[in-house]
Each structure stands twice: as structure tokens, then as C-alpha cells.
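FORM 7B: Structural annotation worksheet

SECTION A. Query
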Amino acid sequence: DTHIKTKPEHVGMHDKNTFRMLYGRVSDLREKAQEYLLETLNQIPDNYDHWHAAGLEILRVANIIPTAVTSDLLVLSCYHNKIHDFNPLLTHSSCQNVHNGLLLWLQLCVMEDKLKRLIKLDANTTSNAKGIIKELKAKRMWDPVAHPSWLVFEVERMIQIRPEQYAVAQHLIDKPGHVIQLNMGLGKTRVILPMLVLHWSFGAHDVVTRLNILSTLFMEAYDYLHNCLCASTLGIKLYTMPFCRDVELDRERIEIMKQMFDQCKLEG
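SECTION B. Predicted structure
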């Protein structure tokens, strides 16, 4: 609140020193959380106290049971049922604790990136001071437990979803069919669309999410969505179906479109 009420020209070096101090603390906590999670997922009981320990070590050496690395933490936050695949000796409650730790680790990653941006901003000019205030006003308005894929999206893109972006996405989720008009530069293609795709991709498994994009924006939108969704650790798949109003639909063409839709549904 103090930063929000402060005039831009009064945001000075004191804030930058504060950001550096907070960055050090957050970075340390993130590293400790990451170390704990990887150790828990890869741990084999010492001295073979557990009668499955020797077998687990053999399976891991043979690469039948994978060894967790940092990128796996992003995937497991959305597919928590796969935590047991990395360490079959974990109990159900332990797997839940690991998942809670994953969500906390992701939030620390987002906070660490946010503090990096704040440190890089030069508060000596009014424009950059306004950027600092804008960053400080951005806070998470959604539940990470309900949307772990959004956390992964934030970490991979090194951004933080702004409250107004969440408000638009949540409105469209709560009220399907509604139309919202937004000004340029509010993150329609780069933030809100990926949020909606991720929400429905990890929500109902019996539907296919469809995006209607103008031909003039198609390639730009496809390139970005391919980069942030297909190339993501989550591996969201995109299927393109260019269409023109001049196309005359008949039974054969409709059947081909239906087959393409069924293929998308089958591959998830």
C-alpha cells in the first residue's frame, strides 16, 4: 500500500535495496524447496531398510523408474498422480505433501522472477517508477491449487498474470458464450488465450477447446501459442483447421471435419 500511494518520482534507491534483500531470501527459499522436492522424489532408503529399496535402485539404474530433474517438477504439479511413478515408496499422504510443495515452489519461482524485474527497473525516471508501481500492484487473485497449469505458464513465460487478465479469463470460464471487447496491449493472445486453453485442457477431458482466429492474425497467434503451449513441459497439442467463408460445406466435407475433431479428441 505504501508503494501504491507513493508518487512515482519518490520511488528511489531504498526500494531497490529492499528488492535485492527480498530477492535473496526468496531465491534461497526456492533453492531449498527445489532441493527438498528432488531429494524426496529420488530418495532410496539408506542401508536398504525397506525391502523394496534394492529393487528400486536396480529399476532406477536401468532407467525403468525415472530420475526426477527440475523440468519434471513443472509437469508433476499438474499431473500429481505421476508423483508415485518417480518414487513408488511414497505413501498417499507423502505424495500429497510433495504436490503441496510443488505448488509452493512454483509460487516462489514466480516471485523470484518478479523481484528480478523490479531490480532491473531504474527508479530514477518517472516512467520506470510507474513500472515498479505497476509490478507491485499485481497480485495473484486466483487459487494455485485450482489452476496449477497457470502457475507453470507463469514460470515458463517468466510473467505474472495481472488481476485484470484473470478477471477476463474467469468471466469467460464462468459464462461461456459471452463476448468481451479488449483494447490492444492487455494480453489477449499472449496471456488470456493460453490461460483459457490450459484451463479447459486440464478440466473436462471429453471436449476439445476451439480457438477462432482471424486469418490476418493466424500465423502470429499460432507461432506464439505453439511456443508457449506445445513447446511447454506440459506439451499441449494444437491442431490447425484453416477455414474460409467461401467454402461450400457438403456432407463429405463435414464428415472430414468430424473425423479431424474425433482425432483431436482421441489424442487429447
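SECTION C. Observations
The mean pLDDT is 87. The chain has twelve helices and no strands.

SECTION D. Sign-off
Analyst initials: ____
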